[in-house]
Each structure stands twice: as structure tokens, then as C-alpha cells.
């Protein structure tokens, strides 16, 4: 795909989501509760992560994906992609019922493993 200045762009197509990482001392036994030591968010999804890395390496790239129109996750993803220099201008707005289809992934990270 040619960019507006005539150069070529790498196009990444696929998933873009927000990873919500919960850090715990160890994985909890089944059917028990456990407090998290820390929590943070990061961009996720293969296409989103690949386009971010390519942009940080100086490549011109564009991300084709579906983002939830108006969702909190979308605002975080847009801000991060803009900061990293990824063109996401042709993303498709998804207006599905957001209580069912979220664009975030929950990750439990154990510090002892």
C-alpha cells in the first residue's frame, strides 16, 4: 500500500484490544479469592502489537482493525497508537452490545513463576 507521500506502508490486519494485567504472588487455588498486588493496562492483540513494534523500529505502518465505538478501551488504544505513530485512521467502528463483547483481555501474572 502506498502512503500519501508515495512511500510504502506495512499494513497490519487483525485484533486490537486492551490487556488488563493483574499481578499476583501466586496463582490462586480453584474456587478461591486472591488480592492483586498490582494492576496495569497495555495494548494487546497481534496486529496492534506488531504495528506498534514496526512503528517504533521506524517503519511506516497502518493498522486495520475493529474497535468498539466510544468504549473506554478504544480511547486508550487510540491514544497509545497515536503516540507510537501508527496510522489507524481506517479502523471500523463496532457498535455491538458492549456488555457482551469487550475489547479487553484479562491476564493473571504470577510473580513466583
CATH topology: UDP-N-acetylmuramoyl-L-alanine:D-glutamate ligase
Provide the CATH top-level class: Alpha Beta
Strand order of the largest sheet: 3-2-7
Give the oligomeric state. Answer: single chain
Helix/sheet category: alpha/beta
The total tally of domains equals: 1
Mind telling me the C-alpha Rg? Answer: 17 Å
Helix/strand order: EEEHEEHEE
Structure description:
About 20% of the residues lie in helices and about 30% in strands. The chain has a three-stranded mixed sheet with strand order 3-2-7. Strands 1-4 form a two-stranded parallel ribbon. It has helices at about 45-55, 70-85, and strands at about 10-15, 15-25, 40-45, 60-65, 65-70, 90-95, 105-110. The radius of gyration is 17 Å and the shape is elongated. The chain has a single domain (about 10-110), classed as 3-Layer(aba) Sandwich (UDP-N-acetylmuramoyl-L-alanine:D-glutamate ligase), CATH 3.40.1190.30. The chain is of the alpha/beta class and about 110 residues long. The model has no long low-confidence stretch (mean pLDDT about 85). The chain has two helices and seven strands, in the order βββαββαββ.
Amino acid at each position: 500500500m502506498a502512503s500519501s507521500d508515495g512511500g510504502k506502508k506495512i499494513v497490519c490486519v487483525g485484533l486490537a484490544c486492551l490487556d488488563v494485567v493483574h499481578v499476583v504472588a501466586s496463582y490462586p487455588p480453584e474456587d478461591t479469592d486472591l488480592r492483586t498486588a498490582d494492576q496495569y493496562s497495555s495494548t494487546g492483540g497481534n496486529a496492534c502489537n506488531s504495528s506498534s513494534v514496526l512503528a517504533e523500529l521506524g517503519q511506516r505502518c497502518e493498522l486495520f482493525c475493529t474497535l468498539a465505538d466510544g468504549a473506554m478501551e478504544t480511547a486508550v488504544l487510540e491514544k497509545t497508537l497515536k503516540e507510537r505513530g501508527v496510522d489507524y485512521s481506517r479502523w471500523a467502528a463496532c457498535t455491538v452490545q458492549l456488555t457482551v463483547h469487550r475489547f479487553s483481555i484479562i491476564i493473571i501474572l504470577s510473580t513466583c513463576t
